[in-house]
Design goal:
By secondary structure, this protein is α+β, with helices and mostly antiparallel strands. It has two domains: about 5-255, Beta Polymerase, domain 2 (2-Layer Sandwich); about 255-325, Methane Monooxygenase Hydroxylase, Chain G, domain 1 (Up-down Bundle). Helices cover about 55% and strands about 15% of the residues. The chain contains eight helices and seven strands; from the N terminus they run βββααββββαααααα. It has helices spanning about 45-55, 60-65, 120-130, 140-175, 175-195, 200-210, 215-280, 305-325; strands at about 5-10, 15-20, 35-40, 70-75, 80-90, 95-105, 105-110. It has a seven-stranded mixed beta sheet with strand order 2-1-3-7-6-5-4, with helices on both faces. A hairpin with a 2-residue loop joins strand 5 and strand 6 (about 95-105). Helix 6 (about 200-210) packs antiparallel against helix 7 and helix 7 packs antiparallel against helix 8 (about 305-325). The radius of gyration is 36 Å and the shape is rod-shaped. It starts with 5 loop residues before the first strand and ends with a helix.
Length: about 325
């Protein structure tokens, strides 16, 4: 047996419960007298054994082995197969993990690529007899597993919303390239979540319409609520997509305003220096005032230089005052 794989059996009835770590899938058959037998397998090394013992269809086995399989459901003659993805937050992004769920008679089999999942609350409820798990059948457990996967998306989306609020404040205060990278990172996570969740609509639609024989009437009502819950999650994602697009627009608008401010200031400075440059240009022509009395006689004035400087200063201050009055500064 591969050391990375782990098989855990949760067998329970209304007043009984057993939890056992086993080495082979066929050992779980010893608990078939219980109302529900949940076989939780970490790793996909036991697919052939599952096919041999439970008669699972090749379509399901191939879908699990296919690395890029989308969420799907196969409603077969004597068992139900559901493939979907659990999503986890990692530093800098999101990661999804394939999770397969089989429902046959009183057996529920879950397979995932590695240890760690979103089912711990279900395990604890079964262990301690909390809730209604022990009073219901395998169909209700199947619903609860699906619900746990969908419910796990909610805190992830809430975290994305929190990040968007932080980034929005940064954009309004001082948007820079790092802020833009964060916005694009958020958009990638939103699109990743949408691509993962959107196929669940078809999965739950088919379960409601075509998989009724595998669920009691009461559990079918829960599936209806689960379908609506997925719709609500998708609505949240669509709102986040619009907000993320809005953040990009705000960023570029802020950047454009900053650019306009810089251009305005540079234009004012250039405008002020135009008359000053004109004056200095005239007095830089170096005409000889001794040859003709019309050749810049002011060059011989005793206070010509300081008067010229004061005049240039007055022009600059007067233009600044005028720009301020016009609210161009």
């Amino acid at each position: 047996m591969n050391e990375s794989s782990k098989i855990t059996v949760f067998a329970y009835s209304k007043d009984q419960f057993e939890e056992k770590r086993v080495k082979k899938v066929e050992e779980a058959l010893n608990y078939k007298e219980y109302s529900v037998v949940w076989i939780n397998i970490d790793g996909i090394e036991h697919l052939e054994e599952l096919k041999r013992i439970f008669g699972f269809h090749d379509v399901a086995i191939k879908a699990i082995l296919r690395a890029k399989s989308r969420a799907r459901v196969a409603i077969l003659k004597d068992h139900l197969f559901i493939l979907l993805h659990q999503v986890y937050e990692l530093k800098g992004g999101l990661k999804k993990e394939r999770t397969a769920i089989f429902l046959k008679d009183n057996f529920v089999i879950t397979l995932q690529e590695r240890s760690g999942d979103v089912f711990n609350s279900i395990r604890e409820s079964i262990r301690h007899g909390e809730g209604i798990f022990r009073e219901r059948g395998a169909d209700y457990l199947t619903f609860a597993l699906l619900d746990a996967i969908v419910e796990n998306y909610v805190p992830i989306l809430e975290n994305i919303s929190t990040q968007m609020e932080v980034v929005e404040n940064k954009v309004l205060k001082n948007g820079d390239k790092d802020t833009l990278r964060k916005i694009h990172g958020i958009r990638r996570r939103i699109l990743f979540a949408r691509r993962t969740i959107f196929p669940l609509l078809e999965v739950f639609r088919r379960l409601r319409l075509e998989g009724k024989e595998f669920f009691t009437e009461e559990t079918q009502g829960y599936l209806e609520e689960l379908y609506n819950h997925v719709m609500e999650v998708l609505d949240i994602i669509e709102n986040q997509r619009e907000m993320a697009s809005g953040l990009v627009e705000i960023y570029y608008s802020t950047l454009s305003m900053k650019t306009n401010d810089i251009i305005r200031i540079l234009t004012v400075v250039s405008t002020i220096f135009i008359p000053l440059t004109f004056i200095t240009g005239i007095y830089g022509m170096n005409f000889n005032s001794k040859i003709s009395p019309y050749n810049m006689p002011e060059l011989n004035w005793y206070y010509g230089y300081p008067i010229t400087l004061l005049m240039m200063l007055a022009i600059a201050l007067g233009m600044l005052y005028y720009f301020k009055r016009k609210e161009w500064l």
